[in-house]
Amino acid sequence: MSARHGEAGTRSRVSLLTGIGALAGAYWLPGAAVVCPPLRLGLGVPNSLEADRVLLTFDDGPHQQGTLAVLDLLREADVRATFFLVGEQVGRRPQLAAEIASAGHEVGLHCHRHRCLLRLTPRQVYHDLLRAQAVIGEATGLSPRRYRPPYGIFNAAALAVAWANGWQPLLWSKDGHDWSRRATADSVVARVTRSLRGGDVILLHDADHYSAPGSWRRTVGALPRILEAIEREQLRKKA
Q1: Does 110 qualify as catalytic in the annotation?
Q2: Known catalytic residue: 59?
Q3: What is the largest CA-CA distance in the chain?
Q4: How is 5-50 classified by DSSP, letter by letter?
Q5: What stretch of H or E contains 232?
Q6: Cα–Cα dist 69/5, whole Å
Q7: What is the pLDDT of residues 146-200, one digit of tens each?
Q8: Burial of 195 from C-beta contacts in 10 A (0-12 / 13-18 / 19+)
Q9: Active site residue: 105, 112, 205, 209, which one?
Q10: Is 70 within 8 Å of 95 (Cβ atoms)?
Q11: What pTM, to 2 d.p., does this model score?
């Protein structure tokens, strides 16, 4: 299949699914991942994975201080994580994105510009995601396999682009709320480790580009205890 043909196919799917979404209301807020599992699962959007491990994920990076601090802690614990990267931040710090990949962590796609999808047209969604894919791929040498939108809010166009490119849409089951101005290292640990079990997907942030200034410091402060909890439950993911 030619690149032009593939792009046309993606645009066609975006147009079709967006039309269906407008009729069926294929938009939802993060809470719907919990309160409406039939909708989430019917559209192929899990918030948990294999029952024998926990997936540790970080959104919004890379960040000069936060990402490096998180990488150091993961290296010490010999644990691999998934980083959902923002294209515009990768463009500013490509060497950090490359370091994430070279350390053996999974690179996921978050967006190019961090905006709520409900404010974007299908064309804007399409161009944002394809631009992010290109920037992330150029910096890391990897093609993202997983996709998570800003704020955990999908729309029909984004799902169409994800499916056309083979990206697995993924939300989360444990949210540390580390982005909040009121968050502390203790509160992040409590939120994440309460009833932690196999299959959980943990949402944290290694950057404060789109959240409370300095919020990454609470994440870094909480991470050693979160890693200990994962170790205690024998749910580590190593290389």
Answers
A1: no
A2: yes
A3: 52
A4: HHHHHHHHHHHHHHHHHHHHT----TTHHHH-HHHHHHTT--SB--
A5: helix 215-232
A6: 43
A7: 999 999 888 888 988 999 999 999 999 999 999 999 999 999 999 999 999 888 9
A8: exposed
A9: 205
A10: no
A11: 0.83
